[in-house]
Amino acid sequence: MSKLTPFGEASTGAVAAVFANLLVFPLDVVASRLQIQSKALASVQAHSKPYSSQLDALVRITREEGLLQGLYAGVYLKLLKRIYVNQPRMLLPSTSAELALGAVAGALSRAITNPISVVTTRLQTSNTTPNSTSKPTSTSIINEILQTDGIVGLWRGFPASLVLTVNPALTYGLFERVKSLVVARRMKRAVGKGMDAKSVSGMLSSGDAFLVGALTKALATIVTYPYIMAKVRMQWRPPVSSEADKDPLREGNKKGLEDAIRYKSATDVLSKVWQTEGLLGWYVGLNAQLLKAVLCQGILFMTKDYFTAIALLLLK
């Protein structure tokens, strides 16, 4: 067998996706924590010092909440979602066709997995400590959402998720195009040296796959990042009133501060952030998101061919 079936391709893709996401998951938690930070939140939670950088967040979360309960909070849900959404992809004749069909498939999968995303985001952004007696669990978070927002609360941030369906489609479309250019250049170089073009492998080396995957994912992430940030803020649980009541000095403007971090939609997020923090506010946490996305995508593309080769060997 020289080629896997679509099911086999999906399976090896899922294994590679799980492996990559497991390695970079702490960065996912850090990115989520940084994405919800704002001037208004810092005023409401005066007792909690904002994170100054990715490294500061990594160190403090590990020290204050523990490795598993802090940096790996909700990892099982994230991996479950990655397994589900990883579907076999076929190479289509044009990038526009890839984007269209990829977006449709992505919209359907995000509709199903949005509740997982909401619960995962709340687990990642719950600043509990190992000694706390009220650590949130998936069950407690779901019950809280159902009691406060009803079942529709499990689909908070879904419109933003729909916009973000273009991200993986754009990434894979760009990857295939750049990959074909790299392979074509390699073949041209081989012909120039008097070699047979057919002798040149159509696969990228691990290093090339990592670089191309990282580049294409970075471009897609930068383009869609404001909505990535908006989705996280829509799915995050803002502090309740009792948390702000602890500081009587801020009683007068407490209501306005709380309203500033409670959002009705993704566009409401973008509007409020623009008014208080400007364009830079749309890109808060971008460094952490880029590092996580680039490493994850690079590792995925780099390892998928290896997992495919192992599967072919096992099926011989």
TrEMBL record:
It comes from the Eukaryota. Solcar repeats lie at residues 93-181, 204-310. One of its GO terms (cellular component) is membrane. The keyword S-adenosyl-L-methionine does not apply. It is found in: Membrane. Pfam families: Mito_carr. InterPro entries: MCP_dom_sf, MCP_transmembrane, Mito/Peroxisomal_Carrier. One of its GO terms (molecular function) is ADP transmembrane transporter activity. Keywords: Membrane, Repeat, Transmembrane, Transmembrane helix, Transport. It is a multi-pass membrane protein. Transmembrane segments: none annotated. Belongs to the mitochondrial carrier (TC 2.A.29) family. This is Mitochondrial carrier. It comes from Chytriomyces confervae.
